[in-house]
Amino acid sequence: MSDRQVSHEPRDDALAALLGPWLPHRRWFPAKGTQAQVSAVGGTTLVDPRSEAEVRVLLLRVESGSGESVLQVPLTLRPDVDTPDAPDDPAALIGTLPDGTRVRDGAGDPAFLRAWLADADVDPDAPVRPDQLGDPRVISGEQSNTSVILPGAGPEGRTAMLKVFRGLSAGENPDVDVPRALARVGWEHVPRPLAWMSARWPDRQGVVHGHLEVLSAFVPGAADGFELACDMAGRGESFAELARDLGEVIAQMHTALAEALPVPDDGSGHRPAPTGQDPLPTDPSSSAEPGCPAARDLATALTDRFAWAAGIVPELAGHHDAVHALADRVRILTGLPARQRVHGDLHLGQVLRGDGTWYVLDFEGEPLRPMSERTRPDQPLRDAAGMLRSFDYAAAVGHAPEAWTRVAREAFWSGYTAGSGALDPALAAVLLRTLELDKALYEAVYESRNRPDWLVIPLHGIERLLD
What we know:
The chain has twelve helices and 16 strands. By secondary structure, it is of the alpha+beta class. It has two domains: 3-218, Phosphorylase Kinase, domain 1; 224-466, Aminoglycoside phosphotransferase (APH), C-terminal lobe (Aminoglycoside 3'-phosphotransferase, Chain: A, domain 2, Alpha-Beta Complex). Strands 1, 7, 8, 9, 10, 12 and 13 form a seven-stranded mixed β-sheet that branches. Strands 2, 3, 4, 5, 6 and 11 form a six-stranded antiparallel β-sheet that branches. The longest helix has 26 residues, at 425-450. The model is unreliable at 266-288 (pLDDT under 50).
């Protein structure tokens, strides 16, 4: 892998100043509602094969009361004159520098896309074609990244999709490495990565490495899983058959992840209990330290998550005793499944339905967590819990009754357990409840900060899980 070097040029500061008022209106800006200081880390220059624009990939440091982050904004720069290749979308225009240079967000600009395709690291078995790029289309509605559909850019002139990582983190991005690993072991339910770009940039602690973008195969005609479920909920149409199929695919994903990215046994006893074994010790007082390390970690994580969430969402305060009672029960569990690589942020918006099957996307994990935590081995049931929580959202958007959600949940779990082999039912029930609650607490904080009208959805789920 060849890293591009990020360096600081004098014009980068003027570009950062121009971007300052524009950034807070982007959905992926991490410091909304706060006073944030934006400065230029530096950038790297790409060359448009047609020389129709300058291309500068700018990295910005954003500092606010909520912390510090590094953002990426690919820019195209043109003189203040009409140019035949300039995008028509006025939303892409950021502003004009004092010397008259017009600056645009390059994510959907053909000049940036051609330059990127010409310079990216490419899978040798799937060459991309910058010279056959058709009209790009930016996908709207994304929260933390920007994806662009690129007709003609893939192998043999097929369509591909470029994901621009807006928030950058040091280390290998799992949304690049995990799909590559899954493709290597022949798992066909992930769009194959075709090309990627990485860079090295200065950090407070030195120089770090990370991914900037990834180009993946495109699934033509595929439907977004969340939109599909919302539409079916709105029509009162059962999602059971699709949910069962989805459960089987997610179980297969966990099997493929364990093969593609094996996790060494750390000697802590995180092994599955024999089928039918009671996961709860009959006499907890018989051990000075009941349960296994994984169970104690999970219980502590739940109470920590609750303390964090309750400090932000006042409506959660009344659940303190019930949450801690569940954590006490989890703490003495034994025989938890082995930790392994997981998706980390799985929900209906991370899957596509196409070609009569499901495809899984976006292996970055929860965007609010550091990269080191997102790649940490975890319980595979965390992914199942995230998907089950997503059915609540689809039902709420589609105004479907509780029965719609219950049937979809049961069908998904049926498919997942059929594909997972032996799962102890009692152990799985406690784990799934715990992990769903953990996810719902995360959702409550997210909704309170970003979509207050949706806060009722996780609050309702929390009440059901603690009933």
